[in-house]
Amino acid sequence: MKNGAVRKRAFGLSMLVGASLLTCLVPARAETALLNVSYDPTRELYRDINTVFAEEWKAKTGEAITVRASHGGSGAQARTVIDGVDADVVTLGIPSDIDAIAKLTHKIPDDWRTKLPNEATPYTSTVVFLVRKGNPKGVKDWADLTKPDVKVITPNPKTSAGGRWNFLAAWGYAYGQDKDAAKADAFVGQIYKNVPVLDTGARGSTVTFAQRGLGDVLPTWENEAYLVLQEFGAEKFDIVSPPTSIYAEPPVALVAANTERKGTTKAAQAYLDFLYSDRAQAIFAKHHYRPIRREAAAPADLAQLPEIKLFKIEEYQGSWDEIQKRNFDAGGLFDRLSRAGR
Amino acid sequence: MSESEIFSPTFAPTTRGEPVASEGTGTRIVLIGIAIAFLALFLVLPLIAVFTQAFSKGIEAFLAAFREPDAWSAIRLTLTVAAIAVPFNVVFGLAASWAIAKFEFSGKALLITLIDLPFSVSPVVSGLIYVLLFGSQGLFGTWLMDHGIQILFALPGIVLATVFVTFPFVARELIPLMQEQGSSEEEAALTLGASGLHAFRTVTLPNIRWGLLYSVLLCNARAMGEFGAVSVVSGHIRGLTNTIPLHVEILYNEYNFVASFAVATLLAVLALITLVLKSILEWRFAGELAHGRAH
Amino acid sequence: MAKTPRRTWTFRRPSVIPGFGLSFGYTLTCLGLIVLLPLAGLVAKASGLGISGIWEVATDPRVSSALRISFGVSAVAALVASSFGFLVAWVLTRYDFPGRKLVDAAVDLPFALPTAVAGIALASLYAPDGFLGAPLARLGIQAAYTPVGIFIAMVFIGLPFAVRTVQPLIAEIDKEIEEASATLGASRFATLTKVVLPPLIPAVLTGFAMAFARGVGEYGSIIFIAGNLPYVSEIAPLLIVIKLSEFDYGGAAAIATIMLGISFLTLLAINLIQAWSRRRFGYV
């Protein structure tokens, strides 16, 4: 009898295993599915974009399509594509991460930035400051981040695209002052001395600043700053837009090798083209990104994005290869600064 | 090295009453107080925090977390992974404990140490090793890609990482248990003409059934809750490769704290159920469990 | 696998019980495929750097500081976990009080509670505005986002190991020896330190080693509460993840190999402690 019970359980278990194996071997997927591997703060954006794209695709071709998204620190996300995530498109935070995929796997052609308009960047953004209500520390510009009593929350530039843009924005600001690279290096070092927490992704930093109440200023993606006001309440924080900041380009690319194998090239290309359409551009503006075609966006959304003097970091530091190497690769500026600053 | 000596299962409460040699009542109360305060601070408070945070915006907000299809696909994936990993480890545990407990051979201590190894390996390393093997930059990456086999960032990779971290669970419970019980009963059955399989089913299995159930419980809890190893091999694709713990993290990173803690309560309840069942087993069948050093 | 039981007939003692080949072969195959082969792949990847390459990674200031933090904090946490673990085990086996069984069951909570859940729960408790973080902050102690946070998480996950290794041994102590010691006029303190405690030392050490090993490798519960600041609160497992995000597979494998080596040493230490204890006290 005991024996029977054991056997029955074993039988139940094997049924369970069998059933679960079946469910994963026979995915209920008669429709096309695209995978968009993206960076941290675009979760809300691509949820909207994906829904609208699926509607348009259905209207145009009659086919149902699902766009799945995965989010995380830009570098970590690029790593999963390099290791074999079946991404159809990548929409990452910084060009060097897509370069890394192209270089290491050749799944993306090296000249990917020429494949889509505006250097494969359907929208841009910049770095602004999120401060506590009333701006008690009086943070107005980048130089204020070096004050010893100002605690700065920013993500790790090694893993997060947002962290890299923050880093480069600070450097570019200092370099713009008196065109002295050594001085700019020291300026950035000064800021990172004020950083008490270094999260791996932009989202982690926002949670640390907004939810956990640490730090005085959070330099962050402009869109992320507005999202915080929405999610955590505008009565708790202010956005301070510095007079100058960086022209941040989160680019997109087709992972050609994957789409060819899966036969999704047409849909994936259409998805990327869609990002340049009027509807998508308007959605970017709605989520506080800077659309490249302002005429497509709602004026009310555009009015929220203040005039900031934006510089391109390439003009100061050269190609993205050089930028990555100079600042973030092993032994680069960030490594030297954190070693000196400990 | 007989592992059974380590902890023989005399878990039954010691004779209470007034022992001659013990601490005074005052000391006792102080010590009990310290122990309970410490446990409350370090163990119980975090558990309470999960539930208070989950219900901080009311029951409606709590339930909303479970209306998301992504939450359900995470639950489904976690159940699937456990349904594969746990039976696998049961079969492995039975085989390993049979080989180790019923036979004497050289190198046994080394074998036991190797089975133990995943216990002390960092979960991140447990994920990394499979990335290095099956990632497209890895050892078998090109071959797998040429044959269109996806292991990483799909069910097989998640299952492998889970099997790795739960690998010793069943074996380490059953080995000492079988060693304690010895092989005389099986030998008797065999002498009476039973086949080996028959002896295993009618003699061994009934003897170890509570220990087996006990280890399955713990193995299952770990399999469903594993975070570090799975996060390295999962790819975090919403609705596809997110397990419950990863879904908790994703919600947390979307500022959806209530939903994050709400989904976390699922795992917390699972933990509580595990503890309750485990305690019942310990109280009722103490003699039939091995108290291996690692649970 | 080359290790299938080819030497079966020489290295094992004969037995009437069947199934050795099958069970032993299956065990080795699984062990080989799931554990040994992947770990060998890791070591192979790291050895691509050469000994000097691994040494270079290990002595890189950021890596060595992360290793120091992981091992240092874990050692302190394991110490605290095993001292309080001993106390808890003592109280649970020696004293009777209402709710004892409940407390006993609660000890295993960290074991059953997934680490990610523990992480967000601890972070919300110990954050500067959290239930415990706020009073601590008034005392000038910042717990979350500092090594103190790492310490708290490590104590949390290490505690069950510390309690459960000593508990059965305390239960087994022969009370007559204790009573004899008391009758012969030894003070309670002397009885405890001279008679009761020495045989328990190996178990306490084993519990310490296990809590230590778990703490060193822990990831899920720590990253939420640690602050992850290089040179201050960045742990070694996180650095592996960061190295991966930088596409530095060799570096990740090197750190992992170092950690693996140390976990193996810890396991070895546990075995040695037990061997020593078997010689010294006749049991483990």
Automatic annotation (TrEMBL), chain A:
It is found in: Periplasm. The keyword Transport applies. GO terms for molecular function: molecular carrier activity. Pfam families: SBP_bac_11 (PF13531). GO terms for biological process: sulfate transmembrane transport. Residues 1-30 form the signal peptide. Keywords: Periplasm, Signal, Transport. One of its GO terms (cellular component) is periplasmic space. The keyword Heme does not apply. Its main location: periplasm. PANTHER family: SULFATE-BINDING PROTEIN (PTHR30368). Belongs to the prokaryotic sulfate-binding protein family. This is Sulfate transport system substrate-binding protein. It comes from Methylobacterium pseudosasicola. The lineage of its organism: Bacteria, Pseudomonadati, Pseudomonadota, Alphaproteobacteria, Hyphomicrobiales.
From TrEMBL, chain B:
Part of the ABC transporter complex CysAWTP (TC 3.A.1.6.1) involved in sulfate/thiosulfate import. Probably responsible for the translocation of the substrate across the membrane. CDD domains: TM_PBP2. Keywords: Cell inner membrane, Cell membrane, Membrane, Sulfate transport, Transmembrane, Transmembrane helix, Transport. Pfam families: BPD_transp_1 (PF00528). NCBIfam families: 3a0106s02 (TIGR00969), permease_CysW (TIGR02140). The complex is composed of two ATP-binding proteins (CysA), two transmembrane proteins (CysT and CysW) and a solute-binding protein (CysP). Residues 1-22 are annotated as: Disordered. Residues 1-13 have a biased composition (Polar residues). It is found in: Cell inner membrane. GO terms for molecular function: ABC-type sulfate transporter activity. This is Sulfate transport system permease protein CysW. It comes from the Bacteria. GO terms for cellular component: plasma membrane. The keyword Transmembrane applies. Residues 75-278 form the ABC transmembrane type-1 domain. Coiled coil: none annotated. It is a multi-pass membrane protein. The lineage of its organism: Bacteria, Pseudomonadati, Pseudomonadota, Alphaproteobacteria, Hyphomicrobiales. InterPro entries: CysW_permease (IPR011866), MetI-like (IPR000515), MetI-like_sf (IPR035906), Sulph_transpt2 (IPR005667). The chain crosses the membrane at residues 29-56, 77-101, 121-144, 151-171, 255-277. It comes from Methylobacterium pseudosasicola.
Automatic annotation (TrEMBL), chain C:
This is Sulfate transport system permease protein CysT. Belongs to the binding-protein-dependent transport system permease family. CysTW subfamily. Part of the ABC transporter complex CysAWTP (TC 3.A.1.6.1) involved in sulfate/thiosulfate import. Probably responsible for the translocation of the substrate across the membrane. Part of the ABC transporter complex (TC 3.A.1.6.1) involved in sulfate/thiosulfate import. GO terms for cellular component: plasma membrane. It comes from Methylobacterium pseudosasicola. Keywords: Membrane, Sulfate transport, Transmembrane, Transmembrane helix, Transport. The chain crosses the membrane at residues 20-40, 69-93, 105-127, 139-163, 219-242, 249-273. It is a multi-pass membrane protein. It comes from the Bacteria.
